[in-house]
Recover the amino acids of this structure.
């Protein structure tokens, strides 16, 4: 610290050290994106078909899930689970709680968070396909699920891809919150390292550069995918 | 649920946490006001396509959008004081941390807001600027009187979303030592071992704040509609009089 404010050599070393934790961050992002998509699809369906209780529940989930800060969702999942276990075991302290890695809590929290956003994204995509198409499919004698799979889904998917891409990019950044429930991902590793060496500038600069690179990689990937899918857009108009 | 979850404790601690809501509201209001000015300024520069400064801003926006808010927070709040200190200012510790937090929030939101403003400025018909020039307005006058008011009107819903996301990001600032709802909940939870109740309280407060902000956005976009409809009517009337 004495000789220079920013030690480039140390920043490079930190960068190499943080590189090892990229897979953890990506596993969190990809995992919660996948599970969140399933949840989002389910919620979109129950809202669309107006399933008696679930439809209303889905609407409230989307409203509240989008209004809550991600950290609070994570904390609630993290702190609710032991309480739930106590309740199930009738007050007996369960050892099972310690057996569950914090990674799974982070995964559950981020899934709940992204599920709300994705449910809304899917709804937008499906609603942008003309209602008459489903009616036409039903009139042709298709069942509702046939109509959805064969007619609506291919068109809605093209519209959903950019929305899902944006959600994934924001999810990558949101995984940094997982360090607060002791998950050792990119941010957690940087936090741990800087608490030992106190070289905040170098470590967080290296961390920022790494996040930036990962984000740009996926941004480019999604842009290419969008250009490819643009071919199919013409058919819906 | 017996002893494991205490609704009484949850209700009792709600007002305690609510008394800290001012910190989050203050941070949001002040940072978003400044960010709106900075973001609009950046958008204006980028629309003009001034070569060097435009690409400089493009890099800044890409950086902000490519890195988590938490990283920006740590970088500025832990890194910047050391840089300033190294540059010779010794009394940097006298500066309260909230100044740095506001700085991060402004820089963060300004990048997103400038993209929103650029999009809405570009969506306005180019002919309007040409029309302004043809009646002798300068570029500054044209933007101030004709283009920016329209751009703001288009941007209101997106700006509202950005302000809501900034409000939600205030839940992270306790990490750098700001005493707010989250740090109070953490402190109370370490005594009572009832963190779940406390974070549910904090969640309810955040959801309520989001609803209020959403309501304000709806109101402003509705009122904007009213204003511009009025001006359209007035214009139609004055045209009819002539």
């Amino acid at each position: 610290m004495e000789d220079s404010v920013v030690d480039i050599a140390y920043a490079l070393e930190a960068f190499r050290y943080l590189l090892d934790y990229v897979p953890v961050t990506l596993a969190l992002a990809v995992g919660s994106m996948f599970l969140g998509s399933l949840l989002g699809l389910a919620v979109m369906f129950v809202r669309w078909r107006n399933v008696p209780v679930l439809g209303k529940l889905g609407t409230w989930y989307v409203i509240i899930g989008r209004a809550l800060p991600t950290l609070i969702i994570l904390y609630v999942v993290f702190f609710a689970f032991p309480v739930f276990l106590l309740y199930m075991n009738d007050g007996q302290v369960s050892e099972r709680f310690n057996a569950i890695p914090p990674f799974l809590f982070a995964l559950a929290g981020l899934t709940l968070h992204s599920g709300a956003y994705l449910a809304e994204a899917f709804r937008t995509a499906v609603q942008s396909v003309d209602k008459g198409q489903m009616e036409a499919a039903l009139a042709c004698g298709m069942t509702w699920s046939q109509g959805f799979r064969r007619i609506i889904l291919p068109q809605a998917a093209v519209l959903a891809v950019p929305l899902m891409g944006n959600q994934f990019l924001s999810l990558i950044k949101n995984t940094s919150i997982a360090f607060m429930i002791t998950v050792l991902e990119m941010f957690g590793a940087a936090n741990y390292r800087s608490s030992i060496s106190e070289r905040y500038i170098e470590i967080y600069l290296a961390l920022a550069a790494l996040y930036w690179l990962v984000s740009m990689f996926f941004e480019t990937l999604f842009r290419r995918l969008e250009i490819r899918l643009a071919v199919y857009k013409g058919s819906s108009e | 649920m017996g002893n494991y979850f205490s609704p009484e404790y949850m209700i009792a601690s709600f007002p305690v946490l609510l008394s800290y809501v001012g910190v989050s509201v203050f941070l949001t209001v002040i940072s978003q006001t400044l960010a709106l000015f900075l973001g609009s300024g950046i958008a204006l520069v980028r629309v003009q396509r001034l070569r060097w400064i435009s690409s400089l801003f493009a890099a800044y926006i890409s950086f902000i959008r490519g890195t988590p808010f938490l990283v920006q927070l740590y970088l500025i709040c832990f890194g910047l004081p050391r840089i300033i200190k190294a540059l010779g200012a010794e009394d940097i510790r006298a500066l309260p941390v909230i100044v740095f937090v506001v700085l991060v929030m402004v820089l963060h939101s300004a990048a997103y807001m400038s993209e929103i403003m650029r999009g809405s400025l570009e969506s306005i018909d180019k002919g309007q600027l040409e029309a302004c020039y043809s009646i002798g307005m300068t570029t500054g006058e044209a933007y101030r009187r004709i283009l920016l008011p329209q751009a703001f009107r288009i941007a209101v819903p997106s700006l509202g979303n950005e302000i809501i996301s900034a409000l939600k990001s205030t839940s992270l600032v306790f990490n750098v030592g700001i005493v707010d709802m989250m740090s109070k909940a953490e402190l109370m939870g370490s005594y009572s071992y009832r963190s779940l109740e406390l974070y549910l309280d904090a969640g309810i407060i955040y959801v309520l704040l989001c609803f209020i902000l959403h309501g304000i956005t709806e109101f402003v976009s509705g009122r904007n509609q009213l204003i511009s409809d009025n001006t359209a009517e007035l214009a139609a009337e004055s045209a009819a009089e002539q």
